[in-house]
Amino acid sequence: MTISKLWRIAEFTTMAGRRLREAVKETLISNGNGEFNNNTEVIIAGLTNTYSQYIATFEEYEQQRYEAASTLYDPHTLSAYTQEFKKLAEAMAKGEKIMKGPSPPDLFKAQLSLLPDPLGDSPPPGKNFGDMKQDIIVPKNGTFTKGDKASATFWSANPRYDLLTEGTFAVVEMLQGQHWTPVYDDDDFSLFFEWKVDDSYLYSIATIEWEIPTEAGSGVYRLRHFGSSKKTKDSPNEYFTGASSSFAVS
User: Fold this and answer.
1) What's the CATH code of the domain at 184?
2) Same domain, 90 and 146
3) pTM attached to this predicted model
């Protein structure tokens, strides 16, 4: 688990990844008391441009092409990572515990952005954030079928007030008994969330569109929107939600 977490902090070039995998595999085999062998697969699950961006080999760093030029530290970055991964691999192979090292600094507040913050939002007179601008348009036969698209538009606010990283802007809920249960959110390819300003350029709207998958169960559904707003740039976030009318899927 520890190794898995470390592999998520940067993106290795192809050759850097090969060298790291070979070093880790060799360490596992030599310290695993027969548990590991040449058939052991070592997989790097690196996420693009995360905490320390790219990791290139010494030779690639000297060339300073794209990935190497985005290796933030020095030409020995790969060697440093390899050294620490070998320590982790050895401890894992031997079943030993290791001391927790220092946490990397949180540099979020030190990052520069040329994109100005939103200045504040308000809904149209007589409306609240989360109210419907355009509710679900139900087919003439009264029921959606698999493959149809259901959409609704809400009065909303700029999503950059809070990206809801641990949440979601859009949910499809299914009525189960007396309760609405989330069944799809914006992690799913079938659900789309679009934010923009309306034609007056004064107010924000958010549209949720659901392409009903073939595997969706028949039943009653609704679309729900989550968001946050600020009255002024420096005022606290205020959170809101809104829901469309219910509709049937057969």
Assistant:
1) 2.60.40.2300
2) no
3) 0.64
Number of folded domains in the chain? 2
CA dihedral 139, 177, 216, 219 (to 10 degrees): -30
pLDDT at 48 over 90: no
Per the annotation, binding residues are: 11, 54
Say yes or no: 177 and 144 in one domain. Answer: yes
As a 3-state breakdown, the chain gives helix, strand, coil percent values, each rounded to 5, of: 25, 25, 50
What angle is formed at CA 33 by the lines to CA 32 and CA 36, rounded to 5 degrees?
50
Binding site per annotation, positions for Zn(2+): 11, 54
Tens of pLDDT, residue by residue over 88-141, are: 999 999 999 988 888 878 877 887 888 888 888 999 999 999 999 999 999 999
118 in a domain, yes or no? no
Burial class (CB in 10 A: 0-12, 13-18, 19+), 95: exposed
Domain that residue 187 falls in: 132-249
Q: What's the pLDDT tens digit per position in 174-208?
A: 999 999 999 999 889 999 999 999 999 899 999 99
Contact 35, 1 (CB under 8 A): no
